[in-house]
Design brief:
By secondary structure, this protein is of the alpha/beta class. 46% of the residues lie in helices and 14% in strands. It contains 15 helices and 8 strands. The protein has helices at residues 2-9, 33-41, 61-66, 87-100, 131-136, 159-180, 196-201, 215-225, 246-262, 267-270, 277-287, 289-309, 319-340, 347-361, 364-377; strands at residues 19-26, 48-55, 73-78, 116-120, 126-127, 144-153, 192-195, 229-240. An 8-stranded mixed beta sheet has the order 3-2-1-4-7-6-8-5, with helices on both faces. Helix 6 crosses helix 14.
Length: 406
């Protein structure tokens, strides 16, 4: 409700008041890049630049881009040895290119850094056409440094991709929505929008993005620590591919977990951010999440050992503690599932699928352990996750409301 009041207060600022620069990192993205760029070309923007960073692709990504005719499309081609040095390096070169080349062109010269918004869209991203209009009101606040869109999974055709979609909903509807009211919502990579002047304020030797496994999280935290606000826009969506392979999903989440362990070095600055006390507490809690999650996993293992080895009952002996256990264990999942549907009318459905979703959430425990191990021994190399082929033209996407048969 507070967000909607602020939206009405900022209605005098619209998407036409900004230059929207969409940055699309692309490494061997011949499968999805045409679809993503096509959707960006259909965004409702008065002033738009689409800058695709072809990061040393060896497939037909360059040829696909060359076949797209639009004055709004710019391609920044990176070649060896500068290419393939990570997403942060690609975004940093794009950031420099925007400042030194794009903004010096006559058609864009009238936009100050405060009125230039850089949006990061992954090469498999499908962004809502009205996303700029939905995001613009946030930037009526001159302290707003970044806004994150709600992420959804568009290939929801099985249990794993359905659960990933629910997981992103939890992040958006619960954690991010709460933090947005304090101005401490963080960035999630795909579908993030940042003010150019905010990025310039945290620029280091190579640029605003640092070479981290979760460069989006690192950037968002540093923007907040530098005095900028972060927000979440849940009425605009960026769709992306989910992973239908458990092995590939575990590898992806291990990389994310390792990035979260890396982010612990940002802790000293989180207690001093310019925000309410409760927001500073949450900023510390946010960075400590991998530690707390790992402790939760160890507590789960200890509980099972106590139950099966020492015959200590799993179910609490009193009704009060049973209710407390159910609320803590399954309450957050129920809230997320209800927020995704039609409120309490979805209660029966949420009650049915909260157990499968909770089981999926336990994937975080092995990912955290693997990520910590890699972090401690200094292993940072990762292979790029391959894209799935897009559905045939005209084939409707399957909407899965819950776990489907494999």
């Amino acid at each position: 409700r507070r967000a909607r009041r602020r939206e009405r207060a900022g209605e005098e600022v619209g998407e036409r008041d900004f230059l929207w620069v969409f940055l699309v990192p692309a490494l061997n993205e011949e499968v999805t890049i045409a679809d993503s760029v096509s959707r960006l070309l259909h965004t409702e923007c008065t002033n738009r630049v689409i800058l695709v960073i072809n990061d040393g692709s060896e497939d037909a990504t360059g040829e696909v881009l060359a076949g797209i005719a639009s004055d709004d499309l710019h391609v920044l081609t990176r070649v060896a040895p500068q290419a393939r040095l990570g997403k942060a390096a690609a975004l940093n070169q794009a950031f420099a290119h925007v400042r030194t080349d794009i903004l010096r062109q006559e058609r864009y010269a009238g936009f100050s850094p405060d009125r230039v918004i850089l949006g990061v869209v992954d090469a498999d991203g499908r962004i809502d056409a009205d996303a700029p209009a939905r995001v613009a009101w946030h930037f009526a606040d001159e302290r707003m440094g970044g806004v994150q869109l709600r992420v959804r999974i568009y290939n929801r055709r099985g249990y794993l991709t359905w659960a990933q979609d629910v997981e992103f909903s939890a992040f958006a509807y619960v954690f991010q929505a709460g933090r947005a009211s304090w101005g401490t919502a963080n960035m999630g990579g795909n579908g993030q929008f940042n003010r150019l002047s905010a990025l310039a304020s945290v620029t280091e030797a190579e640029g605003p993005w640092r070479d981290r496994l979760t460069e989006d999280q690192d950037l968002g935290v540093r923007l907040i620590q530098a005095g900028w606000r972060g927000s979440q826009e849940n009425l605009a969506v960026v769709n992306q591919q989910g992973l239908n392979s458990l092995r590939r999903l575990l590898r992806q989440r291990t990389r994310w977990a390792q990035g979260a362990w890396q982010a612990l070095d940002l802790l000293p600055g989180s207690g001093r951010i310019d925000a309410r006390f409760i927001a500073r507490v949450d900023a510390v809690f946010y960075l400590l999440t991998p530690v707390l999650q790992l402790l939760t996993g160890l507590a789960l293992v200890a509980t099972l050992i106590l139950a099966f080895v020492y015959d200590i009952p799993l179910v609490p002996s009193t009704l009060l503690f049973t209710i407390l256990f159910l609320c803590i264990g399954f309450g957050p999942g129920m809230v997320t599932l209800l927020l995704r549907g039609n409120g309490w009318r979805e209660f029966g459905y949420a009650l049915l699928v909260v157990i499968p979703y909770t089981a999926y959430s336990w994937l975080v425990f092995p990912a955290l352990l693997r990520g910590l191990g890699r972090h401690l021994v200094g292993r940072r190399g990762w292979a790029k996750t391959a894209r799935e082929p897009l559905q045939a033209a005209g084939e409707p996407e399957t909407e899965v409301r819950g776990p489907a048969p494999r």
